[in-house]
Structure formats: structure tokens, C-alpha cells
Design goal:
The chain is of the alpha+beta class. The chain folds into three domains: about 40 residues, Roll (Ubiquitin-like (UB roll)), CATH 3.10.20.90; about 30 residues, no CATH class; about 50 residues. The protein is built from four helices and six strands; from the N terminus they run E-E-H-E-H-H-H-E-E-E. It has a three-stranded antiparallel beta sheet, with no helix packed on it. Strands 4-5-6 form a three-stranded antiparallel beta sheet, with no helix packed on it. The radius of gyration is 19 Å and the shape is extended. It starts with a strand and ends in a 17-residue tail after the last strand.
Amino acid sequence: MFHTHSLSLSLSSERIFEDHENLVENLLNWTRDSHNKLMFIERIEKYALFKNPQNYLLGRKETSEMADRNKEALLEECFCGSSVSVPEIEGILWLKDDGKKSWKKRYFLLRASGIYYVPKGKAKVSHPLNTPIDC
């Protein structure tokens, strides 16, 4: 399973083209003098959420093996249940501030209300943060 991977050197960013996207249409948006690169990379983690949902949906740091029928039940509960809710996900991401050349490692929280980062020097908190990220 190979996926097309685009590296935009001018924006210091990466982008993965999904199977359903028209690659040529997107490449036509690049300028002739662009230094962007196109790579084909195998992404084995693409379907990891569906193969091991307990690693992503249970909200625990420790992950364990789970029976296939329990995995199916967990996926159905999260995506098909009557009370579908967005799981809170947290972890380290790299952030590049406007006007800065370097990227900084920050601790982020993804909640139903938005994506937030914990300012440097602050403890991880369980209450809502006042630092939303504009996407």
C-alpha cells in the first residue's frame, strides 16, 4: 500500500495525498520554479485506528491486545453509537509560529471544541484551555 507524499520545502511542510485525490490536479497548482518534492512512501499506519482502536480510543497510556470482536464493538460504539462523542487526544506536535523559521515541539490537546496547545512551562491541565489554534 503506497501513498503519494508531497514535501513543500518553501512552506516547510509535508502533505499526504489520499487514494481518492487527483494527483495531477494538485501538482498543477505548483509553480514552475517550485522546489517541492513528490515521494511515494509506504504508510503502514494508515489504517492503524481500525486495526488497533484501543490504542487511540480508550484514552489510556497503556495499550493491550484486544480480541477482534471487542475491537469491532469499540469502533461501533465510537462511530455508530447513539451518543457519538469525539475522543480527546493529546500528544506532542511541532508548531511553527508566524514569522519564525524554526519549529518548536509543543504539547497539544484535541477536543470536540478545538485543538489547543499547552504553553511552554505550564502543566498539562484537564480543564478547557484558552489557547485555541486557528486552522
